[in-house]
Amino acid sequence: MIDTDIAVIGAGPTGLFTVFEAGLLGMRCHLIDSLSKPGGQCSEIYPNKPIYDIPAYPEIKAGELVDKLLEQIKPFSPGYSLGETAEGLSKEDDKFIITTDKKTKISAKVIAIAGGLGNFEPRKPKLENLEKYEDNGVQYGVLDPEKFRNKSVIISGGGDSALDWTIVLSEIAKKVTLIHRRNQFRGAVDSVNKIQKLKDKGILEILTPAVISKLHGDKKLENVEIKVEDKSLNLATDYLIPLYGLVPKMDVFKSWGLEIDKNAIKVNNSLDYQTNKNGIYAIGDINSYPGKLKLILSGFHEAAIMCHSAFQIVNPGKKNVLKYTTVSGISGFDGSKKEPKKTEINSFK
Ligand SMILES: Cc1cc2nc3c(=O)[nH]c(=O)nc-3n(C[C@H](O)[C@H](O)[C@H](O)COP(=O)(O)OP(=O)(O)OC[C@H]3O[C@@H](n4cnc5c(N)ncnc54)[C@H](O)[C@@H]3O)c2cc1C
Fold it and tell me: Does 139 sit in the ligand 1 pocket, CB within 6 Å?
């Protein structure tokens, strides 16, 4: 049995930053994630895409942000159960016991669910023989854009992911064709303008309203049949990337008796992001409250608030005073120390 203060479900940006905030307050964390590496959506879906709205980073690639978070939490030596899904929940005295699908047991006074979209899986097109071509030409995300250098790629979808990857791959691939079932794209206006420019320059082909009707190929994908209005086209391609979003799976958390609101866990946001069960918090993309913004920075903020509330459960009766890291420094559980610096503070005269 692994014993810790806070069991964190999800090692996405929110879960990782929870380890840091908890560590500042002297609490240990154990991270559980179904994926084999930390980083959540940032690592799994868009590691090479630049993010522009992380405070103090005018631009940072999602994978780089994860690396920085891992570096930041290193002093607090979290435990990891990667490639394991949190499934069972029971209670012994004042501790929760989480059991994973690999039968690992984690005991903690507090649970922080930072599970993003839950166990998500890509929304797939309904096509005959689709499975035959999965990982043989059909893929649902882009991990390494270099894989597509000088290749022919068909991207299908009308949201941000489809538009963003079309823009990125247009610079790398031999040929990119973007298809969408509607004439209007749902993505950001700026991205729509960019793809229009790429089309005008002849770098990109756009087919709308169009749907994929059949896949062909002996051992791997070779041709895609596409219905454009009432015409049928046969396009030779190396890759088809359908980007129709992700299907969230909340089954586990529903079975724990947590209140679910439209595929997210309802929390008390006026206080501390606690769910309807005492000691179980939900932070980051997985929670729902009025005005919620599904952004990385929201997850960071919620992690800080949640940890200060959890301190009272982990250390009943102990007083917790908010300290600036500039004043307290950082004392890692690994023995490392970052001392506060006594330098002059500029003050207003
Ligand atoms: C293409 C794209 C571009 C984006 N761009 C931006 C941007 O520019 N700026 C921005 O702020 N946000 C952006 N986002 C959103 C951002 O990625 C999310 O807000 C962020 O990832 C949420 O972090 P999280 O840690 O809450 O959840 P996630 O990153 O989703 O991580 C949750 C983790 O929990 C795990 N998990 C779930 N259930 C279980 C379980 N039962 N057991 C074990 N593990 C479990 C999952 O495997 C996952 O790894 C973008 C998203 C996408 C898809």
Answer: no
